[in-house]
Amino acid sequence: MSKTVLIATEKPFAPAAVEQIKAVFSQANYEVALLEKYTDKAAFIAAVENADALIVRSDKVTSDVIEAAKNLKIVVRAGAGYDNVDCAAASAKDIVVMNTPGQNSNAVAELAFGLMVTISRKQYQGKSGTELREKRIGIHGYGNIGKCMVKIAKGFGMEVEAFGRSLTPGQSLDDGAVASQSVADLYANCDYISLNIPSNETTKASVSYDLLSAVKKGAVLVNTARKEVVDEEGLKKMMEERPDFCYVSDVAPVCAEELREKYPDRCFFTAKKMGAQTAEANINAGIAAANQIVNFLEKGDTTFKVN
Ligand code: 3PG
Fold it and tell me: Ligand 1 centroid to 243 CA: how many Å?
């Protein structure tokens, strides 16, 4: 019997990506069901019932979704962060969870620079701004996105410092970045700090008031990662105490409205998470997800399994 793949995307892929994902599955003789822009979790739960495989973006694959899926063997998060998937619930039912690392990194990194330019040019409201050239950027998290950030930062003529678990303090990296002595140093040394860390038990609220309060005068925090990694009480305190500090984010904090109202010139938040919202990123991540599903179901290939 032919296999069925559900693509459940509250925030849809670009049409060109859907077309190309469908082509991969058509080649494998799989059926495709598409659930886009759903507003009701019940619609997702109903749609997943008979699926053998599932592709999602930031859609929440919670235990009730997993429970409802009678035939599910694999979930692929078309993207990097899989904090939206209940991996323990999936493992308990022997369902494989994968992500597609690196496929949307460039799109996210480009958006981070867009946010930096937006705030540095005073949100294009006619006031004089500042440039990125010769400023120092701190890349917090040296994974696929962090590495893209370094390349683009070099193009802007910035000095680059990075902090990541794989780096040795003080190490000079081949891409021109220097590894920070510590995470505290990264925050203290840089004019822009970009968050490129995943959200997990270790990183939640890890961008604390202590780290933030040490930043240089006029520093900008750029968050294209997850809102959960920033301690919002600390952030609010920082915004209140430091009229020179700016926060720009693709993942608006819970307190977004309050910050916008109080400090309109010092914060900017996208309307929806837009980092990976390009045709290219959707095509790259979507095709990778589709191929990973076919390779797993046909050959048992578990590359990029995360659970
Ligand atoms: C990711 O983790 O890959 C990014 O945050 C993109 O998420 P999205 O697919 O919901 O845009």
Answer: 31
Question: Within 10 A of 228 (CB to CB), how many other CB atoms are there?
Answer: 18
- CA–centroid distance, 274 to ligand 1, in Å, is 8
Kindly state if the Cβ of 111 falls inside 6 Å of ligand 1.
no
Q: From the CA of 275, how far away is ligand 1's center (Å)? A: 7
Residue 104 Cβ contacting ligand 1 at under 6 Å? yes
CA of 226 to the centre of ligand 1 (A): 9
**How close is the Cα of 31 to the center of ligand 1, in Å?**
25
DSSP 238: H
Q: Could you name the CATH architecture of 105-269?
A: 3-Layer(aba) Sandwich (3.40)
Architecture of the domain defined by 4-103+278-299: 3-Layer(aba) Sandwich (3.40)
- Supply the pTM of this predicted model: 0.96
Per residue in 251-266, pLDDT (tens digit) is: 999 999 999 999 999 9
Residues 6+ apart with CB under 8 A from 54: 5, 6, 8, 48, 61, 69, 72, 74, 75, 76
Where are the domain boundaries for CATH 3.40.50.720 in the chain? Answer: 4-103+278-299, 105-269
Q: What is the pLDDT of residue 1?
A: 74
| Band (22; pLDDT cuts 50, 70, 90) | very high
Which atom from ligand 1 is nearest to the alpha carbon of 226?
A: 5
Q: What does the pLDDT look like over 121-147, one tens digit per residue?
A: 999 999 999 999 999 999 999 999 999
User: What order do you get walking across the sheet with 136-140 strand by strand?
Assistant: 178-179, 159-163, 136-140, 192-195, 220-223, 246-249, 267-269
Q: Is 273 in the pocket of ligand 1 (CB under 6 A)?
A: yes
Q: Quick one: pLDDT at residue 254?
A: 97
